[in-house]
Write a structure and sequence with these properties.
There is one protein chain. The N and C termini lie close together (11 Å). The strands form two sheets. This protein has a five-stranded parallel β-sheet, with helices on both faces. It folds into two domains: 1-29 and 121-215, P-loop containing nucleotide triphosphate hydrolases (Rossmann fold, 3-Layer(aba) Sandwich), CATH 3.40.50; 34-120, P-loop containing nucleotide triphosphate hydrolases (Rossmann fold), CATH 3.40.50. It contains nine helices and eight strands. α2 crosses α5 (104-118), α3 (54-63) packs parallel to α5 and α7 (148-161) crosses α8. β3 and β4 form a beta hairpin. The protein is an alpha/beta fold. It binds 2'-deoxycytidine-5'-monophosphate. 2'-deoxycytidine-5'-monophosphate is lined by residues 12, 34-35, 38-39, 97-98, 101, 127-130, 178, 182.
Length: 220
């Protein structure tokens, strides 16, 4: 069977990584979390303790050696040989990542790396610009979204389960701000690709979304 390239784009907190992982597992494909790559560059910038400049973050993105190691239930992320799986999810990284990922040089370096990692097909990529920029000829393109309220609610439950004290309203504000920054930026803004399947998961559970995508893959 042909090894497909499957692009899943959408806003923060829509469940892209959960869904992409499950689709990749079902098809025995590689899963590529492109957001983790932008987060890793952002972590590198924060660790440098230098003042933000497009030149600096571009240089860091070009130097960054990012790799993934798949384990059951866990996608481990490595940056320049060190594990950063947890560190890239910190609030500091989350707050800075939109600014770093808006820089042209950063995007060029990441897109190049993503095309190389996905060039053989048999891959599920999740991000913001996979169907529009990275793999515009992907076999299956999905735009996965959900209402801000629903995304904040899911994130709240996730963090609460980890014992973190957060307010759902604050999460909703953060999500709305990140949506705005990601979709209004000049280069590769978040938008639904022309021929993407638009899936609003506000009223759908995870197995239903996975089933819908697998059906589209079969048809492709
Ligand atoms: O999917 P995520 O929330 O981990 O992504 C973190 C940030 O990285 C997101 O706010 C925007 C950026 N990003 C991007 O610009 N392009 C991608 N393909 C993936 C993520």
């Amino acid at each position: 069977m042909k090894k497909l390239t499957i692009a899943i784009d959408g806003p923060a907190g829509a469940g892209k990584s959960t869904i992409a992982k499950k689709v990749a597992e079902a098809l025995n494909y590689v899963y590529l979390d492109t957001g983790a790559m932008y987060r890793a560059v952002t972590l590198m910038f924060l660790q440098s303790k230098k003042t933000f400049s497009p030149e600096l973050v571009t240089k860091l993105a070009e130097e960054a050696k990012i790799s993934f190691q798949r384990e059951p239930g866990l996608n481990r992320v490595f940056l320049n040989g060190e594990e950063v799986t947890e560190a890239i999810r910190s609030l500091d990284v989350t707050h800075e990542v939109s600014a770093v990922s808006a820089v042209k040089g950063v995007r060029e370096a990441m897109v190049k790396a993503q095309r190389e990692l996905g060039k053989d097909g048999g891959v599920v990529l999740d991000g913001r610009d996979i169907g529009t920029v990275v793999f515009p000829l992907a076999d299956v393109k999905i735009f996965l979204t959900a209402s801000v309220e629903e995304r904040a609610r899911r994130r709240f439950l996730e963090l609460k389960a980890k014992g973190m004290a957060v307010r759902q309203e604050d999460l909703a504000k953060d999500i709305a701000l990140r949506d705005k920054l990601d979709s209004e930026r000049e280069i590769a803004p978040l938008k639904c690709a022309e021929n993407a399947h638009y899936l609003d998961s506000s009223q759908m559970d995870i197995p239903t979304v996975v089933k819908t995508i697998l059906k589209l893959c079969k048809e492709a």
